[in-house]
Write a structure and sequence with these properties.
249 residues; two-stranded antiparallel sheet
Length: 249
């Protein structure tokens, strides 16, 4: 599948209508907790074209609530109260809608990951940068759960056929890979393989977030009457795997 060649189908650089706020996350007891903000995360300004924006947001809502298999252009049009042909003026197929949502999701993910990262001039700052990168990851997943679901829990069309989607998807992971490589070079990680170490960090963060968001984490903690801070304990295991000091992670 290929994205449309029409220029109006490319997402604008100014993805967010407002600058993301600081992470509303804090460690509380045995899990990552979220400070309640708003259950509606569809206020992101995707494009200048308002109709196209509404189509993308309604599509994102349908995918979030019913799954990607239930997305249809006709349903989007019906929900928005527009003619059935209107969505096709902006997207050739529903797959094109999903591709653009993926691009938007990964672009915002990259922007969030890179937000306020300190320049790594010393080992101490490199460690601060690593912690900030983790915080930024959690902030994105918490503040943009629908887009997070699109980029990591939805089977996107093969990005080999979609250069822009591939670029931002790869860039998001390269931020972590470069961080890990720098920490290895500085002697802060005792690892052999930078890629697999980066994948370990990613899977740990992703798994923790997903299990926490659906309530499994707290359910297991209560069921087994576990009385330690699970976030700290998991970080401890991760630091050992990466050859790091526990306090450094």
């Amino acid at each position: 599948m290929k994205t449309s060649d029409k220029s109006h189908n490319s997402p604008r650089k100014s993805i967010g209508a407002k600058k993301p706020t600081k992470a509303s996350i804090k460690k509380n007891g045995n899990s990552i907790s979220k400070t309640p903000k708003s259950t509606n995360h569809f206020d992101i300004q995707f494009n200048v074209d308002k109709t196209k924006d509404l189509i993308l947001k309604e599509s994102l809502k349908i995918i979030t609530e019913l799954g990607i298999q239930n997305l249809s252009m006709r349903e989007v049009a019906r929900n928005l109260g527009i003619s059935h042909g209107t969505p096709y003026r902006h997207f050739s197929t529903k797959e094109d809608v999903v591709i653009e949502l993926g691009i938007i999701g990964f672009r915002l993910f990259v922007d969030t990951l890179e937000s306020d990262l300190p320049v790594p001039t010393t080992k101490e700052i490199l460690l601060k940068r690593f912690k900030k990168l983790k915080d930024n990851y959690i902030r994105y997943a918490t503040e943009n759960p629908e887009l997070y679901n699109i980029i990591f829990n939805t089977k996107l069309p093969e990005n080999e056929d979609n250069p822009e989607l591939k670029f931002f998807a790869n860039k998001s992971f390269s931020i972590l890979v470069n961080q890990v490589a720098s920490m290895k070079t500085a002697g802060l990680m005792e690892i052999e393989d930078v890629f697999s170490a980066s994948m370990l960090i990613f899977t740990q963060l992703h798994g923790h977030i997903m299990l926490n968001n659906i309530g499994v984490m707290n359910g297991l903690i209560k069921g087994f009457q576990y009385d330690k801070d699970i976030s700290d304990e998991i970080d401890g295991h991760l630091s050992k795997s990466l050859g790091m000091k526990r306090d450094d992670i």
